[in-house]
Amino acid sequence: MTRNQELFERARKIIPGGVNSPVRAFRSVGGTPPFIASGLGPHVFDAEGLRYLDYVCSWGPLILGHAHPDVVRAVQEAATKGLSFGAPTQGEVELAELLVKLVPSMDMLRLVSSGTEATMSAIRLARGFTGRDAIIKFEGCYHGHADSLLVKAGSGALTFGNPSSGGVPADLAKHTLVLDYNSVDQLEDAFRQHGDKIAAVIVEPVAGNMNLIAPKTEFLKTLRELCSRHGAVLIFDEVMTGFRVGINSAQGLYGITPDLSTFGKVIGGGMPLGAFGGRRDIMEKIAPLGPVYQAGTLSGNPLSVAAGLATLRLIQQPGFYASLSAKTLRLTEGLSAAGRKHGVALSAQAVGGMFGLYFRATPPTSYAEVMESDKETFNRFFHAMLAAGQYLAPSAFEAGFVSAAHSEADIDSTVAAADAILASLRMT
Ligand code: KE4
């Protein structure tokens, strides 16, 4: 039994699935997940001392690479002053001021400890602000595990949703309408039928939880127009895309101004941190100013704030995103070329520092298209790449991430490994 297998066996006795978040259990790809002992730069090292080039980056936060010295030092220094006070601190003000500067659509914001808290709070706030109950989300988009967001499409395209998880009351799920991502027609029909009941639309402005699906410009523009016309709050869930696709996040990349935005991942640099914010008239409905309650013992935690400030200062360096985007594109172009060379139906695309890799001939533009991907071939490819020291997201339906610490030589090693594996896949 390997060290990873031994740890996994122990873990599964006392932690459901042996993991503290389901995707880590490798159930989509099978096998035993490496238990990670440390990370440095673009690499992680498992309990057996094996080194992997990391394209998960803790599902997006580690945009600078692992154990960046400036971030580690900031956390160490903060820790020597105490871990948490349950009282306002200067760091929270500095982080809020920086986020408001970097995200012009946010007049005000509140810090929380996870992306789920950010989106859950934004939904409640939109409902409190509008006095309406209905919300719209899109199939394949994931916004964390708040009850109103664990909902799948109803029987008919425009019928309200059913729970997608045990424990979510049908009475709550029925307030969530689930539409197809990138479908302008469904959006127009939904608002035509239910416009005056809709409190909010929440959307991943670049979808990253059904693998990567890029938005059609018309889709985001129509979203903005319909929300404005019907008085619904447009929430951009930028937990994954925030400071990942560019310094101005997806809203800056596509030139759409949401009413509320949610953040997480990169803004904490690997520490527990999320945020929600937006229009002042909406944010002033949040307690203690207004009637919408929201709270958190560790919200704005000094160590998370220190990591976030250090991270956000470093990503503002000139050329940071040009370099990150170029390396991510080098990866996706290399992988696509390897697929063509070996006659394997493989495509890939990059948006800033995130990428999609699909075992289908062309990048998907919808949930239905991504579900046509060849999952079995992906799983074989995944394990062969893992054995070659290349750590991809353990699911055919997750996006991948590059960090500033990945060098061009690292990227080229990934393409070379993929080339050799695709050649062998072709044989079998
Ligand atoms: P957290 O509560 O996991 O911090 O954030 C939830 C969330 C909200 N919105 C978007 C767009 C997200 O991608 C996420 C979380 N993303 C997943 C990756 N597929 C986190 C990985 C996990 O669940 O372990």
Task: Please give the structural blueprint.
Elements: H1 3-14, E1 36-40, E2 43-46, E3 51-54, H2 69-79, H3 90-102, E4 108-112, H4 115-130, E5 134-138, E6 151-152, E7 162-163, H5 170-173, E8 176-179, H6 184-194, E9 198-203, H7 217-230, E10 233-237, H8 249-254, E11 260-263, E12 274-278, H9 280-283, H10 302-314, H11 320-341, E13 347-351, E14 354-358, H12 367-370, H13 375-387, E15 390-391, E16 400-401, H14 408-427
Parallel strand pairs: 3-15, 5-8, 5-9, 9-10, 10-11
Antiparallel strand pairs: 1-2, 2-3, 4-12, 6-7, 11-12, 13-14, 14-16
Helix pairs in contact: 2-10, 3-10, 6-7, 11-14, 13-14
General description of the model:
Helix content is about 40%, strand content about 15%. The protein has 2 domains: about 5-65 and about 320-425, Aspartate Aminotransferase, domain 1 (Alpha-Beta Complex), CATH 3.90.1150.10; about 70-315, Aspartate Aminotransferase, domain 2, CATH 3.40.640. The protein has helices spanning about 5-15, 70-80, 90-100, 115-130, 170-175, 185-195, 215-230, 250-255, 280-285, 300-315, 320-340, 365-370, 375-385, 410-425; strands spanning about 35-40, 45, 50-55, 110, 135-140, 150, 160-165, 175-180, 200-205, 235, 260-265, 275-280, 345-350, 355-360, 390, 400. It has a 7-stranded mixed β-sheet with strand order 4-12-11-10-9-5-8, with helices on both faces. It has a 4-stranded mixed β-sheet with strand order 1-2-3-15. Strands 13-14-16 form a 3-stranded antiparallel β-sheet, with helices on one face. The chain starts with a helix and ends with a helix. Ligand KE4 binds near residues 119, 142, 208, 209 and 237.
